[in-house]
Description:
single chain; mainly alpha; Four Helix Bundle (Hemerythrin (Met), subunit A); 7 helices
Amino acid sequence: MRLLYAVATVVLLAACREQAAGDRVLEEANASGNAASNALENAVAQSDAAPLEKEQALALMKERHENYERIGDSMKVITRQLKSGSPDLAQVRGNADTIAQLAPQVSTWFPAGTGPDVGKTEAKAAIWENRQDFAAKAEAFNQAAMAFQRTAQGSDLAAIRAAHGNLGKSCKACHDLYREEH
Length: 182
């Protein structure tokens, strides 16, 4: 049991470290000019750090999967609402908030040693082979999530639907290259 607590503690500390690193990347990415390029380079460098221990990697992979499930579930609710005759904007907004909360973390969910060679995952090895492109797509998803969240706060359904479409395109851009079909 002590081993379980020790592993859990290490995983939580690693997650906190990764979240803090992700927050720094986002702050840098929000700056203009070369600062955004530097943020991508930092995300790539952090992801190329020494691989995690297998137990840590598996725990992070499970957390990554659960977070993507939350994003997917939120997208389903939003899509269903926006296709209805009279969307419940409270549901749209709540789920937009969930996605916007998770989106900045995406680039921290793929450190070295958390790929298909370690355990079951829908993440393709190409993520670790093309770090810079993946980091750019993760940042594009984050920006689309933030834009959708802002737009969803209003009441212009056409604008909300358009922002939702852009968010979906940012998901697809990454899924097409970096996610195994299931």
